[in-house]
Amino acid sequence: MPPPPGVFDEAEAQSIDRMLMCPICPGESIDQSQVELAKQMRQRVREMLAQGTTRQQVLDFFVERYGPTVLAAPPKSGLNLLAWVLPVALVAAALAGGFLALRAMRRGNPEPVLDPYLAAVDARLSSSNLAEGQGRPDNNG
Amino acid sequence: MAELGTIALWLAVGLGVYGAIGALGGQVRGSPLLSESARRAAYVLPLVLTVAILSLVGAFVGRDFQVAYVARHSSLDMPRIYTWVAFYAGNEGSLLFICLVLSALAALALALAPGETRRTLGWTAAILLTVQTFFLAVTAVMANPFETLPLAPPDGEGINPLLTHVGMFFHPPALMSGLVAAAIPLAFVMGSLIGGKTKDEWLDAARQWGLVSWALLAVGLLLGSWWAYTILGWGGFWFWDPVENAALMPWLALTAFIHSVMVQKRRGMFRMWNIVLINVAFGLALYGMFMNRGGPVPSVHSFGASTLGWVFLVFLVVGVAVPFAVFFCRFPALTSSRSLDSMLSREAAFLVNNLMLLGIAFVTLWGTLYPLLSRLFGGQEITVARPFYDQVNGPLLLGLLFVMGVGPLLPWRKATPQALRRALLLPGLAALGTVALLAGLGMHQGYALAGFGLCALVSAGIAQEWWRDVAERQRALGEGYLRAFWRRTRSNRPRYGGYVVHLAVVMVALGVLGGSLFDRQRDVLLVPGQTAEIGEYQIRYLGTVEQPFGDRTEYVSTVVVQRDGQPLTTLYPWRAFYPSQSMAATRAAIRSTPVEDLYVVPSENRADGAVVFRLVVNPMVWWMWTAGPVLVLGTLVCLWPQRRVVAVRAASPLTAQTGRQSTSG
Amino acid sequence: MAGLVGAALALFVALVVLYPFVRSRFWREESATPKPPQDGQLELDGIFSAIEELERQHRSGELLEADFQEQRSGYRQQAALLLREQEERQQKADQALEQEVRRARGVAEPPSADGAVS
């Protein structure tokens, strides 16, 4: 249901502010920037919302005026879909790869090469424990 | 003063070149004398650079505008206290500062190198000195802060007003130090590998210095956010700016490294992976410096475009290529000694945490580079800013919180079903209870519910583990709880220090969740005597006073804050105009409580005394800034030298002697 | 003034950096730093005594079960690795010795024919 003309949702306006970059200040949205142009654009957003314009129409209006760089994030369509899909796909692939790597590590035998040496260590430990039990001859030096 | 600086700087360049070549030659020709001499060069470098820095500071204090750098970044009417800030406000001074920090940290690292790494210390010194020589040469040749003007101007241009803020005393130095400090763990790892030590020789040194770099970056990032929050005047603290991202990425990679290296320490796994991680972290740190010095993307934080960018780009490529080349040469010797027992184990959780952290770093890198790629290959100009990162990184950050909650609760090797139940039952219930409570109170945003639930999971998990450990000791030894707590914490500092840092991260998460999901904001035009409302606050604007200073005019507004008719406080936000720079700066007045911040900033002063205020209510942001000291505390607990079991033993001379050696294991 | 201070600084730096060469020239001391033990035997002893200490602490209740297991298995692993390294070194040394012997024989045999003459 469209809001009655003349009334607009300030929260919606602010969320649109954050989706639009200020064309003349490096890396700032019109919500952040304090230059005159940003103030006018904020004003324009509110006027358009008050006239019952939808969010997409507002964004389209500014894109037409200032070019696609005015959008704070590329649209999820066309070639720009790549910007969104690639990182998500890569992170998913990395997690899957990590899972497979872990599973492969789990299947591997737990280092048979080291086993005789571990056994030797244990043997020496138990023998020294025994010695300790008999009066710890080595500990008073 | 400037001549002394020039002499000291060139002396430092000479020392760096001699040290790097000497250390390399000492290793290649097997000459211990040459190696020692080169190491001594590393030890005197901080002294020489201190002389250089003192002479630059002297030029600032003495208002010596003959020095071009001083003339460009200070003025007669500038408050003297900002000399220190002006000192690294430009490329030249900040590079000199980087040189000093790196030389001091490198000297410390070489002097304190633990036993096993001493055998390959020559290589480590060669690497560190090479990196230092790069920075020194760039400073001396391309960005010399001691260059003089033919004619001293009567007054300087003054400091960028945005920089006159307390946060500026610590934010840039912390970040720059953190970025260069990433060279030290890398130098230990690479030194060991080149020297043919392919086991865990570098582990302790790399972990400790990795932690130092990590903590410096964390503090720098927090201070930077705080600076942005109080001075940029829009009520937020983080907007995924390219330079913010550039500092965040190495921090993420280092976070992965300092976790994953514990798996190597405890279980002998992930050795190759850790080498890759530290290479990536160093590469990202170099990338951060490149972005900062004339990178291709505009930002509020950068030093501005310059030819320096190209030099740093080349250094970045070399700094990534060489370590990876070394890694691949040593690849066959690097196999880890253990395999995984179960997917439900702490080591598996650590790997997931690593992948998530790198995932976030990659998304961030991708976001910064995509506009360039699109321009180069698609021929289309686009912007990638906050909405992109919020949407892509948001879920990943939540996932990271989850792993942070569950990981420390899982035992090493393998979790039996009973152990799992015992570890996860209470924290899980705490998380579900929190979600149910908040949903019952009317919160309906999925993000917020998940985020707060996970915060509860992490905190409850830490509390449970800590309590159980203390109680077990208390039962076993019959000590008082306080004493048992103290002793227990001292017995395993890395673990409990880690818990403290995790609590700090939870605090940051609370601030981020509150500040970015529940902020309320209004822009209002008020004439003196008028009142505006935001939330349950009534803001009454009384008037503005004009205060002229030497370099600026401040317009200080007086605002009385009431809540439900009760007077709460009076705030004095101001806006200053700097005629010499034709620039304005604002300072928000913030009433900060653990519940919420009320943030008032004048964004426009009209001639008739009316003021446009931006009013923001930011819930729980207080927690974020409080997290800083907690994080530092936790890191110090981690770094504090662990009293080793061996050292306790007053035994035969033989064991006493060997005690020192086995600590390196 | 600045030039003077700069020269003094340069002189000091040169003295510090070149000191090792000066020392070796005039004092001719034997290698100042004792060589680290090569065979890892001392390290091995250290690890064994560390494990014994761990067990003592565990028995007295100072150390938690989980910590004890974790640290003990770490030390045990290290000891095994060292043992293996020792054995490998030993094998290498044996091989080298054998080769030496074989070479000595190989070289020695033809001369031994000669040697009888000389």
Largest sheet of chain B, in brief, is: 6 strands, antiparallel
Strand content of chain B: 5-15%
Using the alpha-carbon principal axes, give the shape of chain A.
Answer: elongated
Number of H- or I-type helical stretches of chain A? 5
Domains counted in the coordinates of chain B: how many? 3
Radius of gyration of chain A: 33 Å
Structural class of chain B: alpha+beta
Unreliable stretches of chain B (pLDDT < 50, length at least 5) are 645-665
Helix content bin of chain A: 55-70%
CATH homologous superfamily classification of the largest domain in chain A: Cytochrome C biogenesis protein
**CATH class category label of the largest domain in chain A:** Mainly Alpha
Plain-language structure description:
The complex is a heterotrimer of chains A (141), B (665) and C (118). Chain A is mostly helical and 141 residues long. Chain A is built from 5 helices and no strands. Chain A has 2 domains: 61 residues, Helicase, Ruva Protein, domain 3 (Orthogonal Bundle); 57 residues, no CATH class. The longest helix of chain A has 27 residues. The C terminus of chain A is likely disordered. Chain B has 665 residues and is of the alpha+beta class. The C terminus of chain B is likely disordered. Chain C has one domain. Helices cover 82% and strands 0% of the residues of chain C. Classes of the chains: A mainly alpha (141), B alpha+beta (665), C mainly alpha (118).
Layout of helices and strands, plus pairs?
The complex is a heterotrimer of chains A (141), B (665) and C (118).
Chain A: H1 10-17, H2 36-50, H3 55-66, H4 81-107, H5 115-133
Chain B: H1 2-29, H2 32-61, H3 68-73, H4 83-87, H5 91-112, H6 115-118, H7 121-142, H8 167-181, H9 183-194, H10 203-231, H11 242-267, H12 271-292, H13 308-329, H14 346-378, H15 386-406, H16 417-440, H17 446-477, H18 481-491, H19 493-517, E1 520-526, E2 531-534, E3 537-548, E4 553-563, E5 566-571, E6 574-578, E7 583-587, E8 589-592, E9 596-605, E10 611-619, H20 621-639, H21 645-648, H22 653-662
Antiparallel strand pairs in B: 1-10, 2-3, 3-4, 4-5, 4-6, 6-7, 8-9, 9-10
Chain C: H1 2-26, H2 41-59, H3 65-117
Helix pairs in contact in C: 2-3
